[in-house]
Design a protein that fits this description.
Blueprint lengths: L1 E5 L14 H13 L4 E3 L3 E8 L2 E8 L6 H11 L7 E11 L3 E4 L8 H10 L5 E8 L7 H5 L5 H24 L1 H8 L5
Parallel strand pairs: 1-4, 1-5, 5-7
Antiparallel strand pairs: 2-3, 3-4, 6-7
Helix pairs in contact: 1-5, 2-3, 5-6
């Protein structure tokens, strides 16, 4: 079993924001698999998805972004999974809209959800799929930008990135991180 964690904030206020790109990817996977979301005792909503003989536990932490690590830690313990089984999906302000970058490990890159997970797990050794949401120009407040709904002129590109992000997660699960990195990381394969 793989634990696929989409990062975001719960509630309708955040539903269509760049910061909820991780939630959108796991929603995409859940809809493909016909699985419904249910509350879990691990501070998350979960759904299952079967992928060519691999079972995916999809998770949306309900702790808000800055405390995502609490839910991930509980899920790993409850389902007896290892760090090798974890894939975290999040937005990335440093990547242009639509770009995807997969890493087998790394820092938080200024992302509070990743920072929380690294602190809770005590390691940077987990796979992450980062989704580019960079604005077209300068923004005065990055937090306000990622917590504001995606504007209509960028919505189609955002939806396309979500579909591509779901495909990237599937590639990580089926072909492995290195192969997925070669396929999806810009200029790296």
């Amino acid at each position: 079993m793989k634990l696929v964690v989409g990062l975001g904030n719960p509630g309708p206020r955040y539903a269509h924001t760049p910061h909820n790109a991780g939630f959108a990817v796991v929603d995409q996977l859940a809809s493909q698999g016909g699985g419904g979301w249910k509350p879990d005792s691990c501070l998350a909503r979960v759904a299952t998805f079967g992928l060519s003989g691999t079972s995916l536990l999809l998770a949306k932490p309900q702790t808000y972004m800055n405390l995502s690590g609490r839910a991930v830690s509980l899920l790993l313990s409850e389902y007896r999974l290892s760090l090798d089984d974890v894939i975290v999906i999040c937005d990335d302000l440093a990547l242009p809209l639509g770009r995807i970058r997969i890493r087998a490990r790394g820092g938080d890159g200024g992302h509070n959800g990743l920072k929380s997970i690294i602190e809770a797990l005590g390691t940077r050794e987990f796979t992450r799929v980062r989704l580019g949401v960079a604005p077209q120009g300068e923004v005065a407040d990055a937090a306000e930008f990622v917590l504001t709904p995606v504007p209509p002129d960028r919505a189609a590109a955002f939806r396309q990135m979500i579909r591509k992000g779901a495909e990237a997660v599937e590639a990580v699960c089926l072909a492995g991180v290195d192969d997925a990195m070669n396929r999806y990381n810009p200029g790296e394969g």
